[in-house]
Structure formats: structure tokens, C-alpha cells
Fold each of these.
Amino acid sequence: MGFSRIEVVTSMNRLSDLKTALSKLGVSGMTVVQAIGCGVQKGTFEYEAEQNPEMELLPKQMIIIVVEDEMIDKVVDTIKKELYTGHIGDGKIFITPLSNIIRVRTGEEGADALK
């Protein structure tokens, strides 16, 4: 059984709905970090006529989730559905394989460390 880390970088206003939807899927935990950053548009807002010549860092949040590989497609589909607005700033999803998970308190590893 493999595990993956899913990192989502998105705007600040969609966390509540995403958290509810992921809970319904059985995702048992997540970490949310407030950040600043920009993507391809260099922080240009959709209504601005031209791209910024210099990057403008905007408030973002990074959501980190660890799931069993069998859940990746369902989790990613849910994330895309909940975050989609069709506008700049909907976000990016990054998926990275993990070799192991260890719960420090008990020493449990793998799937046991996630439960």
C-alpha cells in the first residue's frame, strides 16, 4: 500500500467547503499553512489590463493532505470541484509519493499512523 502527499495552493476563501467535502470522503487530517505567493500571472488580478512586470505576492493558503494511493483520484476530483471558480487564483495541486509515515508518539508506521 502506497501513500502520497497532496499539496494544494489556493486563495484564502475556499477552505471551509473543501474541508467539509474532504471529511465526507474519509480524509482523516490536513495541515493548512497561510502563505504569500503568485503563479504564472505574477500576481496580476484578472481585471487588470496588463501583467505586472514584477511579481506581486498575494495571500494564499497551502493545504497538505496525506492519503493512500487508492484515494488520490477521488481526493483530487473533490479538490478540483470545490476550488473551481474559473478565475485566476483557483490554485494548483501537487502530488508527491511518500515512502513511509511514522507517528512519533506511538511509533506506528504506514496506514496505522494515519488512523
Amino acid sequence: MTGFDPRWLTSPVGRSAVRGFTAEMRRQGTPTTKMTTTVIAYTFIGVVASFVLVPIVTGMLDADGTRIIAVIAIPVIIATVLTLIARAALRRDRTAQYRLHNFAAANGMAYLPHIVDPALPGLIFNQGRSRRAVRRVRGTQPRFVEFANYRYTTGSGKNSTTHVWGYVAIHLDTPLPHIVLDAKGNNGLFGSNLPTSFDRGQRLSLEGSFDEFFTLYCPRGYETDALYLFTPDIMARFMDNAAELDVEIVDNWLFLYAKRDFVTLDPDMWGWLFSVVSALMDKLQRWERWRDARLTAQAARPRVLPATGEALPFRGDQQVIPPQGRRGPKGVAAHGRRLSTNVRWWAIAVGAAVALGVAWIFVWSVLTG
């Protein structure tokens, strides 16, 4: 994260280089956007548009010959224009992938294709359906860090919604308690923009102005542990660099979220993301020294097992399994691994109000009809 070379994001690239990159991706079995799918989609749009436009245009013409020409020409023109648009869109997408591939390589990382339903434990990764991470950029030194755009769909039919997120996933060497920092700077009209609502009894107030930027949730009984993790210097890092990002610590991962794409061709976006990760990187070593006192106390109690074979001279016929080191074992006790969630009552109230309104309009129309 020390060197930042954004030149590939904006520097001119040749079409032949992009074609060679796309061909190489196909040889490696890497998924790419296919021309056939794009053209079929635009052709379908053209057919629908033709059914709408041909009657309108022919109705405005007088001569039968002119109408016949229009019936033939309009679909051809529409199909040609949409095919050109499809080719241009496909070329832009492949050029963007080529740029990101070279940008990642120039910064010691790798560009990876999309993946369906990534196996990550964060709160956005178990929502809805059609879950996929797209345009992933991954680094492994000094630790695993992945930048990606994420999509999932909720609802069905006309009421379906595709949710757009960007995430940064940082791997930790030590599992930590489940902690969420809900950034107040990106909240909406009805509060948090996170897809999950947490029990308010798990809120923890920290010193200084931290509460003006984040709402911190930690499992009950882990308040002292959260204070160990979020020392004043770490809180300052989050406030100065990540005040617009939602943060989740779960298992051995640290996630940064926002409801917009992270992996783009915008050098300013990458400069900001790199600065955030760099600001946090050197503080994570303190977190990895944390041990769950509940597991440590359990491990400190010697376990007595029956001896197999000859008895030990200093313990008679029993063996003692010693504690797992002075600092205790890595891990989190069961009740600290996940926060408790609750129902968003405002959403239920709004839904109920809408349903009552529709029912009242129906009844009123029947009574006054």
C-alpha cells in the first residue's frame, strides 16, 4: 500500500492490446462479457421498438410503396444502431478490465474476474439472491486485502431491486468479536443504510467525538474488549479516514462498506481507498494480540485425561494437558461471534400504512361507485 501508481486508470490504450488481453483471458478460462449476449439483448430491444415505431411511422405516410420501405428500413436501422451501441459498450467494458488488470499489476496486486456468492461472513453477503462480486482487485502483501464491487437482488418481478455495494475485505490473523461501526455520515432518511438492524442494547458509547461519526455495536459482555480494540489512536484513524464507510469486524475479517462501486477507473477513489487501508494496516497488529478472556480462562484449567500405557511418575495414572500458552488460544466465545439482530419496526409500520391506505381507497371506491 506504500506505492500508488494510477497511470493505467487514465492513460491511452490501443484496441489491439485490449483484444489480446481479452483473448488471453479466454484462453485461461476467465469469464468475460460475451458479444453474443450483449447483441441479443440489444436486438431484443430493437424488435420491441420496431413493433412500436413501425405502425406510428407508416400511419404518417400516404404512399403504399413508401410504407413498405419504412416497414423494412425501420427495423434494419434500429438493429444497426443498437448493434453499434452494444459493440461500443462491450469495448468500454473490456477496456476497463484491461486498465484495471494493468493498474493492479503496477501496484503489486491482481485483477480477478467476478465470482458468484463469495464465501465471506460479512452482513451484506447473506442478503437477497443473485449475489456476486465483480471487478475484484486483490493484494496479499503485507496481508490479504480485496477491493470489489458487489451486487445482490431482493424482491421479485416488477418489485425486484438490485443493490449496489463496494467493499474492502482485510484478513486478520486472529478471530475477533463481532463489532459493527455504523457510519452516520451515509445514513438515509430512515436511519442506517445497512441491510441488517441490530439490537440497541448492544450499542457502546466511546469517548470523545467518536459517537458523532459512528454507532458502535458489540456483543453484550464484550464492552471491555471493544475498548481494548478501539483505543483513542485507532478511533482517530477511523474518524479521519473512514467516516463515510460502514465497518464490520467478524471472525477474522475486517470489512469496509459503502453503497457505491469501489473498483472504478477514478484515481481519486483509489487514492482514498489506499489511504484508508494504509491508515489502518499498522494498527491491526494490536488487534491480533487480543485474546478472548473467556477462552483463556477455560484453557487455563488443566484437562485431566486417563493415561495410556505406563503411568507418569509425577502424576500417578493421570496425564495433564497444559494451557495453550501464556496468552491463551485464538478464538471468540460463542456469544461473542455474532451480534443480535432485530426487526426494523419502521419498515413494518410504513408497509402497514401503505396497505391500509390501499385498502381504504378500494373500500371508498366501492362505496362511492
